[in-house]
Amino acid sequence: TLIFPFFYSFKFFFNLCCFYECFNLKFVRLQTKENLTPIGSKIAELNESRSELLGRIQGLKQDLQSWRSKLDTQVKVYRDELSELKKSLNTEVDQLRSEFQELRTTLQQQQEDVTTSLRNLGLQDVSGDKKEGQETQDTVVEENGDKESNVSTKE
């Protein structure tokens, strides 16, 4: 009699397990069928999102190319302007050099003319005096040390 209830309980347990397994398989089949529909919609949603992202990326690439093109154009314009300014500046510098050279030549000519005129008048060449006798300045400090004065002497 002890085996009999055990047998029934075992049989009951076995039937219960079989039922559970059968139910579980049906549930899994239903679940996979149900999951297939959301997976399909998820795939479609992801494909749509991917298409949108690719479109955005293409738009950004075009914007970047446009920006680079505009930047290259601006750089070229600025370089051309700088080149023109450099040429203009070099021209002005050359012009100033030639004007200074003309001034130097004119001043030398005038100095020679003045020297010649002074010699013709019988006066000594002022520039020659400076070369022959150089002036030196000695600083003399007075005894109380408050004041300094410059005294020129010829050697």
Brief overview, please?
It comes from Prunus avium. With 155 residues, this protein is mainly α.
* Helical content (DSSP H or I, runs of 4+): over 70%
Total count of helical runs of at least 4 residues: 2
The averaged pLDDT comes out at 73
Task: Identify low-pLDDT runs.
Answer: 1-8, 26-30, 131-155
Please indicate the percent range of residues in DSSP E strands (runs of 2 or more): 5-15%
Radius of gyration (CA) equals 55 Å
Give the biggest beta sheet.
Answer: 2 strands, antiparallel
The structural class is: mainly alpha
SSE pattern, N- to C-terminal? HHEE
Shape descriptor: rod-shaped
Distance between the termini: 154 Å
Report the strand count.
2
Q: What order do the strands of the largest sheet run in, or round the barrel if closed?
A: 1-2
Structure overview:
- With 155 residues, this protein is mainly alpha-helical.
- The chain has a domain of 107 residues.
- Helices cover 81% and strands 9% of the residues.
- The chain contains two helices and two strands; from the N terminus they run H-H-E-E.
- The chain has a two-stranded antiparallel sheet.
- A hairpin with a 6-residue loop joins strand 1 and strand 2.
- It is rod-shaped.
- The N and C termini lie far apart (154 Å).
- The N terminus and C terminus are likely disordered.
What's the helix and strand layout?
Layout: H1 3-121, H2 126-132, E1 135-141, E2 148-154
Antiparallel strand pairs: 1-2
Biased composition (Basic and acidic residues): 144-155
Protein name: CAP-Gly domain-containing linker protein 1-like
Region (Disordered): 118-155
